[in-house]
């Protein structure tokens, strides 16, 4: 696994709309390009802040989180009709092989990245399925987000994804965050 898991007591902070400074709804939808017939997963969905932005544009959104306290917060807030909460770790997903058209994570890759999780994502995504990663960068300014020592660089993420068989479509380093869009391997 990656670095330490987000403290559920801080869940309300994830609902702060100022987070769109780092990754906006528009940007996420542009990167993911969701379609009405798609099944997608939000990896480490937390309170559903970004899941809510994607949910209206897909058939099914699996909101996956390893901490049930986060799902409880999301359920109290109100889960959209197209969202199914899934209590699981990214290294052992209760989803069928080739069941996802796409998956995304925001501010979470540094918590779940491992060989096991990336192999599991390669399994559940359809061949060529899109994986969008937006996360805090190890070369960031540290104006916000976790300590630099708990982050990956864009280069780390690209190497890890390539080692897991993914093809990199976009790899963009910014001041505080990086964006990586990859396609799942063929089988
Ligand atoms: C920093 S929060 C971000 C939540 C959400 N992506 C957002 O941007 O609002 C990270 C979330 O990932 C979850 N998480 C961490 N490691 C995970 C793993 N291996 N599998 C599934 N969820 C994980 C945590 O429980 C937490 O809810």
Notes on the structure:
Helices cover 25% and strands 26% of the residues. It is of the alpha/beta class and 187 residues long. It has a single domain (23-183), classed as Vaccinia Virus protein VP39 (Rossmann fold, 3-Layer(aba) Sandwich), CATH 3.40.50.150. The protein has a seven-stranded mixed sheet with strand order 3-2-1-4-5-7-6, sandwiched between helices. Helix 2 (51-54) links the parallel strand 1 and strand 2. The longest helix has 10 residues, at 68-77. The model has no long low-confidence stretch (mean pLDDT 96). Bound molecules: S-adenosylmethionine. The site of S-adenosylmethionine has 21 residues, from strand 2 and helix 4.
The residue-averaged pLDDT reads 96
The count of DSSP E runs of length 2 or more, i.e. the number of strands, is 7
Classification by helices and strands:
alpha/beta
Instruction: Please report the number of helical segments.
Output: 6
Low-confidence stretches: none
- The H-level CATH homologous superfamily, spelled out, is Vaccinia Virus protein VP39
GO biological process, one term: methylation
EC number: 2.1.1.-
GO molecular function, one term: S-adenosylmethionine-dependent methyltransferase activity
Protein name: S-adenosylmethionine-dependent methyltransferase
Q: What is the compact description of this entry?
A:
The chain is 25% helix and 26% strand. The protein has 187 residues and is of the alpha/beta class.
